[in-house]
Design brief:
Helices cover 74% and strands 3% of the residues. By secondary structure, the protein is an all-alpha fold. The protein has one domain.
Length: 190
C-alpha cells in the first residue's frame, strides 16, 4: 500500500512537471489554485484565526497539494473496488477525478468557515455541512465531469460512490478542524 502511494505520487509529479497532461488539466489546476489563494487571503482577513498569514497560507496551499494527491489515491481505490468504474478511460481519469474533488472542497471552504461563525448549534452546523458537502460534490461531478468526456467516461456507480465517500471525508475533515475547548484551558468554576 505504501509502495503504491509513493508510486502514484511520483508518477503524478512526473506527469505534471513533464507536460504530459492535457492543457485542460493545467488550466483547471491554475484556476483552482488562484481561487484557493484568493479564498485564503479573504478568509484570513475576515475570519481571524490567531495564526500568522504566512502560516495560514502555507497550511492552505499544502492542504491543496495533499488534497489533489489524496483525490488520486481515493479515485484509484474506488476504481479498484467498483467493477467497471470507467466505461471508457485514459491514463488521466484519476487526475481529473481528483481535480473535481478538490474543486468541491475549495468551493465549500469559505462557506464552511461562515457556517462555523454564524451557526452556534453544533448538531445543526453538522447537518448543514453534510448538506453543503453532498450538494457541492454532486454539482461538481454533474457539471465538471462532462468537460472530461473526451478523455474518460465514469460509471454512475463510481460517481455516486465518489460523491458519498468524498462528502463523508469532508465531514471528517470539518470535524477535526472544529476548535474544541480544551479541558486544560477552561477556567474552573470551583
Amino acid at each position: 500500500m505504501v509502495i503504491e502511494t509513493v508510486r502514484t505520487v511520483v508518477n503524478y509529479l512526473i506527469d505534471l512537471l513533464s507536460g504530459d497532461l492535457p492543457a485542460l488539466y493545467y488550466r483547471w489546476i491554475v484556476l483552482l489554485l488562484a481561487v484557493q489563494i484568493i479564498q485564503l487571503t479573504v478568509t484570513y482577513r475576515y475570519f481571524k484565526t490567531g495564526k500568522g498569514f504566512a502560516v495560514y497560507f502555507a497550511e492552505g496551499t499544502a492542504g491543496f497539494a495533499v488534497l489533489i494527491l489524496a483525490g488520486i489515491l481515493l479515485s484509484k481505490f474506488f476504481a479498484f473496488i467498483i467493477e467497471d468504474a470507467f466505461i471508457r478511460s485514459s491514463g488521466m481519469a484519476h487526475a481529473f477525478i481528483s481535480l473535481i474533488i478538490t474543486t468541491a472542497y475549495v468551493a465549500t471552504e469559505g462557506l464552511k468557515l461562515l457556517l462555523r461563525k454564524k451557526v452556534n448549534d453544533k448538531d445543526r452546523r453538522f447537518l448543514l455541512m453534510l448538506a453543503l458537502a453532498l450538494t457541492a460534490n454532486s454539482l461538481c461531478f454533474y457539471w465538471l465531469l462532462p468537460l472530461t468526456e473526451a478523455m474518460f467516461l465514469a460509471s454512475r456507480a463510481f460517481m455516486v460512490t465518489m460523491i458519498v465517500a468524498v462528502s463523508i471525508l469532508m465531514l471528517i475533515l470539518y470535524h477535526f478542524e472544529e476548535e474544541e475547548a480544551s479541558p486544560l484551558t477552561e477556567k474552573s468554576t470551583v
